[in-house]
Design goal:
Chains A, B: It holds the Pfam family ADH_N_2. Two copies of one chain form a homodimer. The first copy, chain A, is 26% helix and 28% strand. Chain A contains ten helices and 16 strands.
């Protein structure tokens, strides 16, 4: 039995290229005791994988490695006492269309009330990132103003809506008019800024939030963040979820100095790893699901079909190809 | 009766100059009910005053204002029921050699066991800044590595010693060999770096702390902080107490981007205002005093004599003229 797999064959310098990935085929071993034969149904592609390729996010990805990301798979054959054929399991898995695994770090998906893909999007680590990072780092209070960059993306789209549920004013920054319409009309953000058609983001922010910004939920970094951070109020909180604008920069990128602003405005700037909140995923997922069921939370997914499309879907993240979570369906 | 006073007559652009200050003389009004006639004994000069001149630290200082900073004064005459002649009081006061005040925000110095000046240095807001910011933001754990910039200064010299008391390895960055000797020999820092004679601070840090840096207690900002921050460990905490290197920069200074590092290393960067810990000053002062009494904490003061020297002493802060707290004695 053969398995297709995708390997990292060049360490991307700057923007990842299709040639950095190689599709191979391999004969699978026979299943042995304690193993599972899995058939992935959805595989998640995420910006953090670019960080993993620079060693900044576990598991680090090196040249020659088969890429690993989160996925949902069906158990085709089980030789493991905790899993049975037909189970759906979720966890980190290699980019293979068929794989042998032990059961470590795999969770059986018990709750099947929601669409399968949602467990990798709004109910997965991206939705949970929005929930925990906004709550625990951003600590928004009713009536405060939140700006979200990458606001139509997997994390930003959820973070902004949670901000609205907390009674905040929420402004989203996005990269197209379609995305601006999406976050205003479907996600009920108070306002949207298309950074690609806005010459002076700072001036627009001055108009949209003359009261200043209390929480900045940042997914992009770069010039957009410079503009937002200069408008922070005293004791503002900057949740640094990602800096996708910077991931593909060569070393040595410069920008306005932040530390003087940190002093002048008593700012908090913090990064996080969603797995640090692992013990509380249950709590976060229950709240997000409740909001989905009662209609107070919307989400969108960009689903690309075909195992071979994984590298292209991943690269698409850096070209703004997705609204909501980008997933690949086998 | 006449009072000398010092007024800000130009908003400094860049480094403050002697000409930005004007010494005047004024006839004092007669004391009225509820007032105190105070004779300052020590007045504190602090880098944050430069920030106040840019509106970034309360109370903001504008052109024409008499400078205000913390001081200790003797009550010459009291027409206020809560104060009596001969009391020593501490609080924010105008730069005058004799002044009329109501009693608001003045505290009678009850504890006179320690040298008077120490209540404006190690037992004052600079010592308390070291104590609370290191504890509450830096959260050092035994065995961790702390780097302190401005390590011979009023706050840094105390922060580094507290780090040692917590069982950390502490490296200080200073601006002269004398200061390096001071922090190593008198303050028991593990190592000192004289940034003025060190071409590559990063390389020296690599040698001194190959295990990386867990807490950076920053008083200076600028290039020194760039070098330190690039060596932070995952989940490192950066306490931004001050960025004296940046205070006199014209707007538009640039440096390496920090947000990617915040993401990659899950860093925390936080500023603070010591008055936010006001309710806990008693606790902090008691601990600092205990350490002074049992000999585990040393401190130094740079005391300039003469009311007229206030502007020069203030400017001296930006030229590294002080070891420990800079104070002016009347």
């Amino acid at each position: 039995m053969k398995s297709k797999l995708i390997r990292l064959v060049n360490m991307p310098s700057g923007m990842p290229q299709i040639d950095d990935f190689l599709l191979e085929e391999e004969e699978l071993q026979s299943i042995t005791d304690g193993q599972l034969l899995l058939k992935p149904l959805f595989i998640s592609v995420d910006p953090y994988l670019r960080v993993a390729m620079s060693g900044g996010h576990p598991p680090a990805l090196n040249v020659g490695d088969i890429i690993i990301s989160r996925g949902i798979a069906a158990v085709v054959t089980s030789a493991h006492k905790d899993f049975k054929t037909g189970d759906l399991v979720m966890g980190y898995m290699e980019w293979r269309d068929l794989l042998l695994r032990d059961g470590a770090d795999l969770v059986v998906l018990e709750d099947k009330n929601m669409p399968l893909s949602s467990y990798l999007s709004v109910l997965g680590t991206t939705g949970l990132s929005a929930y925990f990072a906004l709550n625990e780092i951003g600590k928004p209070k009713k009536g405060e103003t939140i700006v979200v960059s990458g606001a139509a993306g997997a994390v930003g789209s959820i973070a902004g809506q949670i901000g609205k549920l907390f009674g905040c004013k929420v402004i989203g920054i996005v990269g197209s008019d379609d995305k601006a319409d999406f976050i205003k009309n479907e996600l009920r953000f108070d306002a949207a800024i298309n950074y690609k058609t806005t010459a002076d983001i700072g001036a627009v922010l001055d108009k949209l939030c003359p009261e200043g910004i209390d929480v900045y939920f940042d997914n992009v970094g770069g010039n957009i963040s410079d503009a937002v951070i200069s408008k922070m109020n005293d004791y503002g909180r900057i949740v640094v979820c990602g800096t996708i604008a910077d991931y593909n920069d060569e070393k040595g990128a410069v920008g306005p100095r932040l530390l003087p602003l940190v002093v002048y405005k008593k700012l908090l700037i913090q990064g996080f790893l969603i797995s640090d909140y692992k013990e509380r995923f249950h709590e976060g997922r229950a709240q997000l699901k409740q909001w989905l069921i009662d209609g107070s939370l919307n989400y969108r997914e960009t689903i690309v079909k075909g195992f071979e499309q994984l590298p292209a879907a991943f690269i698409g993240l850096f070209n703004g190809k997705n609204e909501g979570k980008m997933l690949v369906e086998m």
